[in-house]
Amino acid sequence: MTIDDLMLQRGEWLQGTGPMSDVVISSRIRLARNLANYPFRNRAGESDLAEILRTVSEAALSCRSCKDATALDLDPADPLDRQVLVERHLISRQLADAPGPRGVVVTRGETLAVMINEEDHVRLQALRSGLQLTTLWGEINTLDDELAERVEFAFDGRLGYLTACPTNLGTGIRVSVMLHLPALKLTNEIVRVARAAEELRLAIRGLYGEGTDAVGDFYQISNQTTLGKSEEEIIEEFGESIIPRVVEYERAARQALIEKRPVQLDDRIWRAFGNLRTARIISSEETLLHLSHLRLGIATGRFPKMDVKELNDLIMPTQPAHLQKRTGRTMSGEERGALRAAFLRERLHHLN
Amino acid sequence: MTIDDLMLQRGEWLQGTGPMSDVVISSRIRLARNLANYPFRNRAGESDLAEILRTVSEAALSCRSCKDATALDLDPADPLDRQVLVERHLISRQLADAPGPRGVVVTRGETLAVMINEEDHVRLQALRSGLQLTTLWGEINTLDDELAERVEFAFDGRLGYLTACPTNLGTGIRVSVMLHLPALKLTNEIVRVARAAEELRLAIRGLYGEGTDAVGDFYQISNQTTLGKSEEEIIEEFGESIIPRVVEYERAARQALIEKRPVQLDDRIWRAFGNLRTARIISSEETLLHLSHLRLGIATGRFPKMDVKELNDLIMPTQPAHLQKRTGRTMSGEERGALRAAFLRERLHHLN
């Protein structure tokens, strides 16, 4: 499987099929691991990094969990290809931009990824649409066990898994759920959600993680501490208490909009459609914002022209690297804006 | 002819047919006159005002210029009806809101109007689409002569026509031209036009005259002084020098947009269409702004779905009083916004 093959498919996390997918876009679990007998990434030399890359790639590819996976060598890769992987949520921006030998092993369905030589030597990721943390935990735990049979992870009996950054120490787990909260945003109740999250020591971020704004009302909620609780406790708290409560809160806000401000709601939804269908130049941020409102229209039954799958199929192709990759060259922001608008018009034209 | 009849027609000034109508919406000349032997309006009593109204109405209706005209008594009229006349540019906001006996005589084509008991006893107005000040001057001068045969105007051999406000003293003339300057606005060159106008002692205002902003890139340029120059000099300067220069300036700005920023230009035009076609609630200001961009699209040949007449037919019906008059009752701003959006969608739906 190549990057070009990836471009042709919709990753599992964008299928729009998982539980609570009216509000939950996707769930993600990642585990941070480091190899024993090698210095941490920031102290490792070029040859160490190359050895780690080779060792972990081979180990991962030999796991049953990764039987249909591909290893992508990122250092020699085209920057555009790396950016495509970032947009697909398969690697972090940090891994894309880091120097030296590094790579990723990705399964065909894009549900499992093993990042190599990111902040830690190994970062496992399991990613699926909707709220399905238990499934993800099963998958990532299996992969973790399989890898542990093949390489030795740095582990301390008292501290747990050793990580480059102390915030990941212990379980090395981060659980993240991507939520679509347009109604809480429109009613400004998102402020209360953010405050509650802060009290629970959760992080709220945008679509592309750390340091990104919540464009298009897509919010990522994740745990910040990894020490003192078991993986199962963190997952149970997230999957059975925190996230379902936010989902209910968003659903109630949507219902309130439908009952109390239906015209304003429809105005948002239909103007989003109008703008996407007529713009001649449009940024990826504005595109996401309009797609967010269309998604709200689909979820509330007020925009019957599309289903969530069709909507999701507009998200990836309008991202900057995907756009450029398809035309086969890097472009200025203005060129991208025009191409993005042309793509959207072509895809939406038949929806009269 | 009643207000209801007016509602069914497009006033001559919105025909979009006059000279330079790619940029000039309409031209207007008004003359301020007062009857001799009556105190100025602000010192006149109720019975004076009633007598002036009756005298001038009868005189106007007997003029050949007003042979198909109707006299509308404004004091007992429904406020909504008065507002309809303001929106059609047949009376001023001041006349609509003033207390006491007052009225207007309007010709069938809405090209001539005689306002009675506005700031002055008599205000004659001639109004036509495009730049045709010479025609207007012929028409209003004839009407002025005809009226002068029937009533005695307050006139001083040295000062000229006497008026309530000294800025109108002398000729009592005001020449106004409504221009559509979207390209100068988009390129921000409008600032230079405004500065030049200021130096020439001209006033630049919005669509509804004094104290209104230039909504939708519609600008009204008018003379401020009426003393020291003859009517013919003022008209010649306006019609043959000032306005043609602004028109050329706007045309050049449009050409520059087409050549240098065609995508951005089309983006404005087509998004305007998209918003008008999909909004579920929309203000009259936003409507005018979008219609302005569509008009630019029509004038530059980049929006072939409509002609100027069809576009103009969206302007009046979406004005607040016209909207309310058609449904037969006053409405809240929110109700109007929803009704306006529904009207626009219905009118634009077939233009796929």
Question: What's the structural blueprint in terms of helices and strands?
Answer:
Two copies of one chain form a homodimer.
Chain A: H1 3-7, E1 24-33, H2 46-61, E2 70-73, H3 79-87, H4 93-97, E3 103-106, E4 112-116, E5 122-129, H5 133-148, E6 155-156, E7 160-161, E8 173-180, H6 182-186, H7 190-199, E9 202-205, E10 218-223, H8 231-260, H9 262-278, H10 284-299, H11 308-312, H12 320-327, H13 333-348
Antiparallel strand pairs in A: 1-5, 1-8, 2-3, 3-4, 4-5, 6-7, 8-10, 9-10
Can you give a write-up of this model?
Two copies of one chain form a homodimer. Helices cover 45% and strands 15% of the residues of chain A. The first copy, chain A, is an alpha+beta fold. The longest helix of chain A has 30 residues, at 231-260. Chain A has helices at residues 3-7, 46-61, 79-87, 93-97, 133-148, 182-186, 190-199, 231-260, 262-278, 284-299, 308-312, 320-327, 333-348, and strands at residues 24-33, 70-73, 103-106, 112-116, 122-129, 155-156, 160-161, 173-180, 202-205, 218-223. An eight-stranded antiparallel β-sheet of chain A has the order 2-3-4-5-1-8-10-9, with helices on one face. In chain A, strands 6-7 form a two-stranded antiparallel ribbon. In chain A, α3 crosses α12, α8 crosses α9 and α9 (262-278) crosses α10. The first copy, chain A, folds into two domains: 3-253, Glutamine synthetase/guanido kinase, catalytic domain (Creatine Kinase, Chain A, domain 2, 2-Layer Sandwich); 262-348, no CATH class. The two termini of chain A are 37 Å apart.
